[in-house]
Amino acid sequence: MTDIEKVAVVGGGLMGAGIAEVCARAGLDVLVAEVGTDALDRARARISGSLERAVAKAKLTAEEGADAETRLSYTADIGDCADRDLVIEAVAEDEAVKTDVFARLDKVVARPDAILASNTSSIPIMKLAMATGRAGQVVGIHFFNPVPVLPLVELVPSLLTSNETTERAADFATGTLGKTVVHARDRAGFVVNALLVPYLLSAIRMLESGFAAAEDIDAGMVHGCAHPMGPLRLADLIGLDTTRAIADSMYAEFKEPLYAPPPLLLRMVDAGLYGKKSGRGFYDYGKDA
Ligand SMILES: CCCCCCCC(=O)CC(=O)SCCNC(=O)CCNC(=O)[C@H](O)C(C)(C)COP(=O)(O)OP(=O)(O)OC[C@H]1O[C@@H](n2cnc3c(N)ncnc32)[C@H](O)[C@@H]1OP(=O)(O)O
Ligand SMILES: NC(=O)C1=CN([C@@H]2O[C@H](COP(=O)(O)OP(=O)(O)OC[C@H]3O[C@@H](n4cnc5c(N)ncnc54)[C@H](O)[C@@H]3O)[C@@H](O)[C@H]2O)C=CC1
C-alpha cells in the first residue's frame, strides 16, 4: 500500500468510470469530476452498473459492492479536487481539453506532494506537464480497456517527472490496485499503442479497400491468432472518435503513414458512428448498447 488514499478521476466516461471503480474496490476514497449533471449521472450509472455486475458474478460480495459505492462521490466542480493525493485525468483524447484540465488542477490541488496523472493513450506527458507549475509531479498512468479486466498499466514519466513521483505511482498501480506495470518513455503511443495502432488502422484499411468483410477480418484474428476479439470489434469497443484522435496525435508525432487515420474512419466519425458507445460502428449494437 502507498500513502495515496484520496483519489480524483477527472472524466467519468468509458475509462474514467473503470478507473474510479477499481480505485474504490481497492479501498480508496474516490471523487469523480465531470462536466455537468447529465455526464455525472451517466458516470454514476456506469460505475454502479459495473459494480452490480461484479456482485451478480460473485467477483464481489454484496457488502464489498455496497462499500465501494460509499467510497465514491461525484462533482461537477474541479475545485473539489483540492484535497486529493492523486488526480487521474481521463477526459477525451484532445490536447487542448487536457492541457486546460491540467492548468486548472495545478491551481486547485492544494497538497504540495499530490500527483497529477493522465490516462492519455497517445499525447506526450510533457505537453500536459508544461501546463502546470509542477512538472515533477506529472506522470502518465495508462490503463487498458476494460479497466476491471485488463491487468496492465503503462507508467510514463516525462523528462521532468521526479523519481519519487514515478516510484509512488508505480507503488499505487501495483501495491494498491494490483496491476502489472510496464515502464515506457514519453513517446506518443508509449509501448502498447505504438504496436496496436498500426494493426487496428491496417484492419480498417483492409475493410476500406475490399480485402474482406468485417466479420472475416475479425474472425481471422480471433480464430487464427487467438485474440479475444478482432481488430474492428476492438476499435468499436475503444470508440472510433477516440481511435481517430489517437491516430491523429501519433501521426502528428511521427509523420509515419501507418499512423494516419484512413478516410473510412474519418467518415464514420463525421457520421457520429463511434462504435459500441453510440450503438453503431463497424457493427450494430442496438440503441442502448
Ligand atoms: C487506432 C487507435 C486505437 C488505439 C486505442 C488504444 C486505446 C488504449 O489507449 C489502450 C487500450 O485499452 S487498447 C484495448 C485493450 N483491450 C483489449 O484488447 C480488449 C480485448 N478484449 C477482451 O479482453 C475481451 O474480449 C473482453 C474482456 C472485452 C470481453 O471478453 P469476452 O468476449 O470473453 O466476453 P465476456 O465473456 O462477456 O467477458 C469475459 C470476462 O470479462 C468480464 N468483463 C467483460 N467486459 C467487462 C467490463 N466492461 N467490465 C468488467 N468486466 C468485464 C466479464 O464479466 C467476464 O468475466 P468472467 O465471467 O469472470 O469470465
Ligand atoms: N477508450 C479506450 O479504450 C481507452 C481510452 N484511453 C484514454 O482515456 C481517455 C478517456 O477516453 P474514454 O474514456 O474512452 O473517453 P469518453 O469519451 O468515454 O469519456 C471522456 C469523458 O470526459 C468527460 N470530460 C470532457 N471534458 C471534461 C472536463 N473538462 N472535465 C471533466 N470531464 C470532462 C466527458 O464528459 C466524457 O464523459 C482518453 O485520453 C483516451 O485516449 C486509454 C485507454 C483505453
TrEMBL record:
<dbReference type="Pfam" id="PF02737">
    <property type="entry name" value="3HCDH_N"/>
</dbReference>
<dbReference type="InterPro" id="IPR006108">
    <property type="entry name" value="3HC_DH_C"/>
</dbReference>
<feature type="binding site">
    <location>
        <position position="121"/>
    </location>
    <ligand>
        <name>CoA</name>
    </ligand>
</feature>
<keyword id="KW-0560">Oxidoreductase</keyword>
<dbReference type="InterPro" id="IPR008927">
    <property type="entry name" value="6-PGluconate_DH-like_C_sf"/>
</dbReference>
<dbReference type="GO" id="GO:0008691">
    <property type="term" value="F:3-hydroxybutyryl-CoA dehydrogenase activity"/>
</dbReference>
<protein>
    <submittedName>
        <fullName>3-hydroxybutyryl-CoA dehydrogenase</fullName>
    </submittedName>
</protein>
<dbReference type="InterPro" id="IPR013328">
    <property type="entry name" value="6PGD_dom2"/>
</dbReference>
<dbReference type="InterPro" id="IPR036291">
    <property type="entry name" value="NAD(P)-bd_dom_sf"/>
</dbReference>
<dbReference type="InterPro" id="IPR006176">
    <property type="entry name" value="3-OHacyl-CoA_DH_NAD-bd"/>
</dbReference>
<dbReference type="GO" id="GO:0070403">
    <property type="term" value="F:NAD+ binding"/>
</dbReference>
<dbReference type="Pfam" id="PF00725">
    <property type="entry name" value="3HCDH"/>
</dbReference>
<comment type="pathway">
    <text>Lipid metabolism; butanoate metabolism.</text>
</comment>
<feature type="domain" description="3-hydroxyacyl-CoA dehydrogenase C-terminal">
    <location>
        <begin position="189"/>
        <end position="285"/>
    </location>
</feature>
<feature type="site" description="Important for catalytic activity">
    <location>
        <position position="142"/>
    </location>
</feature>
<dbReference type="GO" id="GO:0006635">
    <property type="term" value="P:fatty acid beta-oxidation"/>
</dbReference>
<comment type="similarity">
    <text>Belongs to the 3-hydroxyacyl-CoA dehydrogenase family.</text>
</comment>
<feature type="binding site">
    <location>
        <position position="57"/>
    </location>
    <ligand>
        <name>CoA</name>
    </ligand>
</feature>
<feature type="domain" description="3-hydroxyacyl-CoA dehydrogenase NAD binding">
    <location>
        <begin position="6"/>
        <end position="186"/>
    </location>
</feature>
<feature type="binding site">
    <location>
        <position position="50"/>
    </location>
    <ligand>
        <name>CoA</name>
    </ligand>
</feature>
<dbReference type="InterPro" id="IPR022694">
    <property type="entry name" value="3-OHacyl-CoA_DH"/>
</dbReference>
